[in-house]
Amino acid sequence: MAGPDKEDKTVKLEVPQEQSAEEKKKALEEKKKKKQQEDDMSEEDKRKKEEIELMVERTGDADQGVVELALVTMARELKSATSSMTSVPKPLKFLGPHYAKLVENHAKMAEGSNNKKNLADILSVLSTTQDKTEGERPSLKYRLSGTREGLISWGHEYIRNLCGELSVEWQDRVVADANTSELMALVDEIVPYQMKHNAEAEAVDLLCEVDQVRRVLTFADESNCQRITLYLMQVANFASSREEEHEILDVVFEVFMRQKMHTDALRVALKVNDVSKVTRVVSECEDAVIKKQLALMMSRQRVDFNGFADDEELQKLQNGEGLSQHFLHLAKELDVLEPKLPEDVYKSHLEEKKNAASAALDSAKQNLASTFVNGFVNAGFCKDSLMTVESSGWLYKNKEHGMMSAAASLGLILLWNVDEGLTAIDKFQWSNDNNVKAGALMAFGLTSTGIRTEIDPAYALLADSLESPTAQLKLGSVFGLGLVYAGSRRQDLLENLTPII
Fold it and tell me: Computed from CA positions of residues 309, 311, 315, 318, in that sequence, does the dihedral angle turn out positive or negative?
């Protein structure tokens, strides 16, 4: 009988579990696929694959000199490799399957050693091709633990991937109130590279993500300002708050001003409704022709600006006084002064003919439609074939509201021509028909819209009808005043219109 203290020498054997048929089939297919890939490789690719596998093995060598040589060679292969739109670089492809092995070797290396940092740089690049779990940012992690040198030497795709991880990490650190200085060091290296290599949109995105959009001003120059500002203008449309939108547009404004693109700067100043910016644009612009363009732009947007008081010509341009003459001069140059008929738009001769009864029933509606079409196609040309021809009698071919619309359309035809237009319309306000009178009041407003003069004839013609007992005339007067003085912020108009409301 064995004693109680006799050692138990029983040997335990592990019996491997038999693989299922499905697992065997899958393993066999993978083996065949791997063999097929190896067979398809050229001799050069096979040799390259063997060299890279040898480098991977040497990263775990005890001799640090051997490890250093392997890492230097591996980095050189990755940087010098070329790729196409449909394939990845061969060294990156061959190194991919050994990612886990390299991670293991990296963990075993001494902290702070040069080899550990160099391998971290390589792992940062390799991780761009690996599957990642949610919240994991290996490319950025290894980059921060690596040498932090030669970032741009790894290429554009690597930098693009790094930017994505950097943006997420930045947000997490801001929420946690953690230090972001090491991330800003990367931003300082990435943004100049992207700006230099026609990736302005990506640089702007990165700066927006790290709340440093004003740093765009450092990199904007004559060669890239158009692309930068165009992209920033679109980004501003998706800003999360009004303050953020104004901050982005302020950067755009500064870029335009530094590049002396005053007309573009004025567009931004008007968009943010900042009078101080408008004043700055006008005061810093020294080109007389550009100043005229600025005045016309402000006239078009009805900007209440007094910066041209010392220059009568610019003041007239801003007031819109010469707008009709400029428009007619352009029409003459383009040879489009000839009045156009509604039929030129309808081209009804191409349609099937309607029967006489249907045509008679629709005649009133047809005349009303023709009134509107005639007004729009001849707007600003100061002549047409229906309303400005004395013998046409078009006004009386309409009924009730149709007569009002016909009289008002005259203002559209005489658009901006205050000197002659108001006189031509005046006769209709003495008609016995209230619809024609109301239409004439609207026409006064249409003709004078956007035009400011010291005489202010539109107000004199329209103000009296505000107290008319006839609803049609009162409505026509209010509508006309609204067209003429929209955006003017005139206190006297407010006092007159408030009781009516």
Answer: negative
Q: Which residue has the tokens 């943004």?
A: 191
The predicted pLDDT at position 295 comes to: 92
How confident is the model at residue 499, as a pLDDT?
Answer: 84
Q: Taking 50 as the threshold, does the pLDDT of residue 268 lie above it?
A: yes
What mean pLDDT value characterizes the chain?
Answer: 86
Contact 465, 429 (CB under 8 A): no
The model's pTM: 0.76
The single-letter code of the amino acid at 348 is S
The type of residue at 153 is S
Look at residue 65 and tell me whether its pLDDT is greater than 80: yes
3-state SS, residue 155: coil
> Alpha-carbon distance 261 to 239, whole Å?
24
* Packing angle of the helix pair 262-271, 288-300 (nearest 10 deg): 20
Cβ(79)–Cβ(62) below 8 Å: no
Please check whether residue 206 is in contact with residue 163, taking contact to mean a CB–CB distance below 8 angstroms. yes
Residues 6+ apart with CB under 8 A from 124: 138, 139, 140, 141, 142, 143, 146, 158, 162
Show the tokens assigned to 369: 């439609």
404 contacts 442 by C-beta, under 8 angstroms: yes
3 state DSSP class of 39:
helix
Statement: residue 321 has pLDDT above 70: yes
- Rounded to whole angstroms, the Cα distance separating 250 from 268 reads 8
Neighbours of 423 (CB within 10 A): 12
- Range of weakest confidence among 241-250, 330-339, 344-353: 344-353
Asked if 497 contacts 477 with a C-beta cutoff of 8 angstroms, the reply is no
Average pLDDT of the residues in 20-47: 69
Q: Which of 394, 384, 447, 379 is nearest to 419 (CA)?
A: 447
Q: If you average pLDDT over residues 189-213, what whole number do you get?
A: 92
CA atoms within 13 A on the CB side of 476: 30
Spatial separation of the C-alpha atoms in residues 241 and 223, rounded to whole Å: 30
